[in-house]
Amino acid sequence: MLYATGGAAFAGTAVSICSPVAGVCVGDSQTRSGWVAGAGVEYAVWENLSLKLEYLHADFGTGQYIDPPWWWAARRSSRAMSG
């Protein structure tokens, strides 16, 4: 039997960045939502036993973690403009 599947998907994600020089760590976690789609094939070996091969693709979009403080962004842009 061939089949297709799809629906909503949710994932808990986390990231942390540490600076060994400054000794500071920053972290962020988010619950992301997205979608999942897939297809598969199932074969009945016996009445109560089947084998299944399935592929699922999950997409949670793009996300930004750990927004830099406003002064960090200003410092980076002033460096880029000064050469």
What would you say this structure looks like, in words?
With 83 residues, this protein is of the alpha+beta class. The protein has one domain. The protein is built from one helix and three strands. Strands 1-2-3 form a three-stranded antiparallel β-sheet, with no helix packed on it. Strand 2 and strand 3 form a beta hairpin. The C terminus is likely disordered.
Termini separation comes to: 63 Å
**Helix count, per DSSP?**
1
Helix content: 10-25%
Q: How confident overall, as mean pLDDT?
A: 81
Rg over alpha carbons: 23 Å
The number of strands is 3
Total domain modules: 1
- Detail the poorly predicted runs: 73-83
What shape does the CA trace take? elongated
Task: Give a short account of the largest sheet.
Answer: 3 strands, antiparallel
Given helix and strand content, the structural type is alpha+beta
Percentage of β-strand residues: over 45%
Strand order of the largest sheet: 1-2-3
Features:
single chain; 83 residues; alpha+beta; three-stranded antiparallel beta sheet; 1 helix; 3 strands; 63% strand; elongated; disordered C terminus
